[in-house]
Every structure is written in C-alpha cells, then in structure tokens.
From TrEMBL:
The entry's keywords: Oxidoreductase
GO process terms (BP): organic acid metabolic process; response to oxidative stress; sulfur compound biosynthetic process
EC number(s) per entry: 1.2.7.3
The name this protein goes by in its record: 2-oxoglutarate synthase subunit KorA
Length: 592
C-alpha cells in the first residue's frame, strides 16, 4: 500500500499491553480506553486472550484518534511488554518510531530490535513503593502517558471509576503508581524525537462493547426475563443485565445448562414477558431441540448466538462466523424463523430492539447473531447514537379483553392458532378473560388441540411459513452501503467485518481501486442482491469462516458464482490486511 492511507493514520495512536493470562491485561486496557474516552478521543479496542485462567499469551490493543476509528491496523506505536513473547508476537506491527515499555529488573532479558525505542521502567519496584506490586501495570500506564504527552489526570478519572468501590486508599495508591511511572520516564528519558502528542477534545463519548450494546438494547426493548448459562463469549450479556434488569421489574436466571436456559426463556415468553437467552459455541447446539417448540407453539423469543471458533470446543476465545448455517437451518423439521446479524456495535443495540419487535409481531423465534470480535470490542460513540426517544415497541397482535370475541369459535373457544391471511394468529397473555387456550409442540388445530388430520397439518404449516412471507413484504430487509455506488467492484459483507471494510476503502482508493461495499444485517429473510451483483464486474463476499456460508446463500439467491475472501485463523480482519486481500482477489478468475 502507498502513502496516503498511512499519512491519514499517522494522526492515530496504536497502543497495546501484552503478557500472560492472569497478568491483569484486560483491566489495564480498559482503564486506558476509559481514560482516552474521557479525554474526548475515539477508541477502538481489540483483544487476544487464551482459553485459560492463567498462562498463555493475552493482549489488549487500543487504536485512538480524534476521528472515529472502526478497525485495528497492522501498526503499533506504544507496546507495554510484560513478557518477551509480547515483543515477539507483535514484532511485525512495530516500526522505527515504536516505543517498547518493559521492566528490565525482571528475570527475563528483553530482546528489543535496535530500530525500536526501548523504555526500561522498573515497573514492579515502583509499584511496590506506591503500595503493591499488583499495580505494575498502572505504573506502565503512567509511563505511556509521559511518552505520548497524555494528561495523567484523565487516567485519574478512569482509576476512580475502576477502583472507587474499593475505597479511597486503593484509588490513591493507583494514582501514585501512575505518577511514579510518568515521573520515571520524565526524569530518565528524552523521547521528544518520537513526536507523540495525544490531543484531547471536549467531546463526550459513550464507550461500550457489542455485548453491552445487546444488553442495553434488550432493556430498551422491554426485555424483562433473561436466562442463560455462562459461556465465552456470551456471558457478559448476562453480566450486563444482572443488577440492571431488576430496576425495571425483570429477572436474570443463571440456569444449570443451555437447554434449561432456553426453556425457561420460552416459559417466560409464553407468560407474556419479553424474554431472551444468549449462548455461544456448543451452547447453541444444546438449545437446538427447543427451536421447533418455539416456532410450533408460536412463541416470540429472541435467541442470541455470539459466535466463536468451532466446531466442538474449538477455540473458545477466538473469532469466527461459522454458525450461520445453524442459525438459518438449525433444528429438526422445518422451522420458520428470522435471522438478524448486527454489523456494528451501534447495530447490536438497534437490531436487538428490532429482534424483539419481530419476535412479537410474527410470534416466531428470532436469532440475533453476533460474534466474538464484536462482543469484546470496545468502541466510542456519541450519546445520540443510542437515542432512547427513538425506540419503538411493537407487540403485534396482542389482544386484550375487548378484542377476544372476534377470535372465538362457535363454542366460545379462543383460536390461539387461527389460520389467517398474513399467517399471524391473535396472541393473548394467560389470564386474559375468555382467552384461555392451550398450545403444544405437537401438531395442532386452531385451538391448539393435538391433531394428525392432513388438512389441518397443511393449514398450520403453511400458516407458520406465511408469517415469513408477510414479513418479507412488510419489513425493510435492507442493507448498509458505502464507497462508490457506481464502482464496478462490489464487496459484500455481514457481521463485524463492516468496520474493517469501511476503513479499507482508504487504502484501495489510494491504489486507484474503487469499490461499492454492501454490509448486510439480515440473513433470513435477506435482501435480494441480484441486480447489484449483475451490475458489477466483480463481486466478492467477505466473511470469517472456512466454507463461505454467506457466499453460499448469495449464490443460491442470484444463481451465479461470486469470489470469496475467508479468514478462519481465529483473528478478525484488519483494514490494511483486508485491502490487500481485496486487491489480490480482484485479479483472480471467478471460480467455475
């Protein structure tokens, strides 16, 4: 890639801390991200962590700028290295102007390339003087503040938020540790040649990750019951809701397993509550048995799958988008459903609200499909990106006592599964006068009574699938687009790849490559892209799986082959990497 994109990005700062699991890497990164956000800077984070409590390489990267950033890139300016492996793992991203903060007093001897600036800080000793060796990472943050010209007072605010509940002494000790690191670098190094100077603004930003946005969206949508079983990386949705949903009269239940979680949520939804469950990996497999019951009983339920590397146990803490076929086709028999896949953290909020509305309007399961990269990435947004006044709640054909009569049969029985033109039956919450009814996973008639009568079977199956067709016509199954809409090159994406694609455009433009990008948040039903693909000279589908599951769906729709860029290393796409991949792919022949 040439110089234009790099010049634009030179105003950004890329910082990282790395070590072993158990070294406090995650909390260190979050504190610095919060400090930068409080200083009015945009933040985009990326995490790499091992599937264990202690040991194994883990890192936390932050890209920050006064302009919004949507992706990580292959460049590191400041690296806090707690182990030699941290340097080795990030060597390809370091450059001549990079500074590496390390503790020369520790047992390992750092091997730092000559072209890098080595900043040897006695992290552990300074932390012990401030009150405890556990604060060595905070000492490193203070050192980073001095190197980058970042006001340490913003770090004070983040430390107060992080440790305020543990008492003023803990907060004061951490502040002292940060200043010890800052002062040590100030007194022992002259690093003006690096030229780093983090500008601050008066802007006010919200910093949150995808799972927090889903939890916030669920509360805004009126979710009042959540059941789940702890599993990486979905657990933080439950953690976010716990302690918050109770303020709205709701409940969180930690179930004994995933099958119990989805069935508890199903029961709450049958009782009239807006309900949700969330899981990852093998958890979605365990929930599959209940998918058909949710659909056949016509119960509105939101099922969130935060994808991770599989199959089997796979790599629980790594990125992948391999569950698409499960979301679209999972379950025995034929299960009508909707599949919604947010493409950004803000969409995690808004699409969660939409998922609850779709579930109740059409009385069907809605799969909300996210992925690990989006779930753990923390990003800044202006508060208006989550405008609660713009939230709309649609509960569909929820009947009250005044509307029951029109849905009774000749004997006065409520037709909870009435065959209707749009496929959507009336829904009455248990306890509604004159609307007592039954519902079962067995095939049933309009009253919910078990039946094997052929005509009734056909009527009910057709009715349930007619809901999907009604929604296909009535809802806006659209996509997001950016780049040049008249470009001959079309890139199609779904899920968390949108941000990297948006920033890859700068690199591609620099090389004279114009592209039209379509980012699709709806998997089933999904927009028909036939015209867009036929109008393009080249069409490429980008996704994080090995087989191209979304590309398969697109080819099924348009009856033509598309090119594919697939990444399944367990690591998300980076903007500059993706630009290179697209450039290479455009020169290849379309597969036969």
């Amino acid at each position: 890639m040439g110089g234009k994109a790099q010049d634009n990005m030179a105003e950004d700062l890329n910082w990282a801390v790395g070590g072993e699991a158990g070294d406090g890497i995650d909390s260190t990164g979050k504190i610095f991200a919060q400090a930068l956000s409080r200083a009015g800077r945009h933040v985009f984070t990326s995490k790499d962590f091992a599937s264990r409590i202690r040991g194994g390489y883990t890192s936390y990267k932050i890209r920050t700028s006064v302009e919004q950033v949507q992706s990580v890139v292959d460049r590191l300016d400041i690296l806090v290295a707690l182990t030699q492996r941290t340097i080795d793992e990030n060597l390809d991203e370091l450059h001549e102007g990079s500074a590496i903060i390390y503790d020369g007093e520790r047992s390992w001897e750092a091997e730092i390339p000559d072209e890098m600036t080595a900043v040897d800080v006695p992290l552990k000793s300074l932390a012990e003087e401030a009150g405890g060796a556990i604060m060595r990472n905070i000492v490193a943050l203070g050192a980073a503040c001095e190197i980058t010209g970042f006001d340490v007072e913003y770090l004070d605010e983040a430390l107060e938020k992080r440790f305020g509940g543990k008492g003023s002494k803990i907060v004061d000790n951490n502040k002292a540790a940060a200043r010890a690191g800052q002062e040590y670098v100030q007194e022992n190094y002259d690093l003006d040649h690096l030229g780093y100077n983090i500008d601050t603004t008066d802007n006010d930003y919200v910093l949150l990750n995808g799972n927090e946005a889903i939890g916030m969206g669920a509360l805004a949508a009126g979710c009042r019951f959540y059941a789940g079983y702890p599993i990486t990386p979905a657990t933080s949705i439950m953690e976010y809701l716990t302690g918050r949903i109770e303020d709205y009269g709701g409940h969180v239940v930690q179930a004994e397993d995933e099958l119990s979680a989805i069935n508890m949520s199903l029961g709450a939804a049958r009782a009239g509550a807006r309900a949700m469950t969330a899981t990852s990996g093998a958890g979605i497999d365990l929930m599959t048995e209940t998918f058909g019951l949710v659909a056949t009983s016509e119960t509105p339920l939101v099922i969130t799958d935060v994808q991770r590397s599989g199959p089997s146990t796979g790599m629980p803490t790594k990125q992948e988008q391999g569950d698409l076929n499960m979301a679209v086709y999972g379950g025995h028999g034929e299960v009508p459903r909707f599949v919604v896949a947010p493409t950004s953290i803000t969409e995690c909020f808004w699409k969660t609200i939409e998922a609850f509305n779709l579930a109740e309007k059409y009385q069907t399961p809605v799969f909300l499909v996210s992925d690990l990269a989006m779930s753990v990435t923390e990003q800044t947004f202006p508060p208006e990106a989550f405008d609660m006044d713009a939230v709309e709640i649609d509960r569909g054909k929820l009947v009250d006592e005044d509307e029951v009569d029109e849905w009774l049969d000749a004997q006065g029985h409520f037709r909870a599964h009435a065959v209707t033109e749009d496929g959507v039956s009336p829904r009455a919450i248990p306890g509604t006068t004159d609307a007592a009814h039954m519902s079962t996973g067995l095939e049933h008639d309009e009253l919910g009574r078990r039946t094997e009568e052929e005509d009734e079977r056909v009527h009910q199956v057709d009715k349930r699938y007619r809901k999907v067709e009604t929604a296909r016509e009535q809802e806006d199954w659209d996509y997001r687009e950016f780049g040049d809409p008249d470009a001959d090159n079309l890139i199609i994406s779904w899920g968390s790849n949108e941000g990297a694609l948006a920033e890859a455009l700068d690199y591609l433009e620099e090389d004279g490559i114009d592209v039209h990008v379509i980012s699709v948040p709806y998997i089933y039903p999904r927009p028909d892209l036939t015209e867009e693909i036929e109008a393009a000279d080249e069409a490429i589908v980008v996704e994080c799986n090995a087989t191209g599951q979304f590309a398969d769906l697109i080819e099924h729709d348009v009856l033509t082959r598309v090119k594919r860029i697939n990444k399944y290393t367990g690591v998300r796409f980076k903007a500059d990497e993706l630009a290179d991949e697209i450039t290479d792919k455009l020169s290849e022949e379309v597969p036969a």
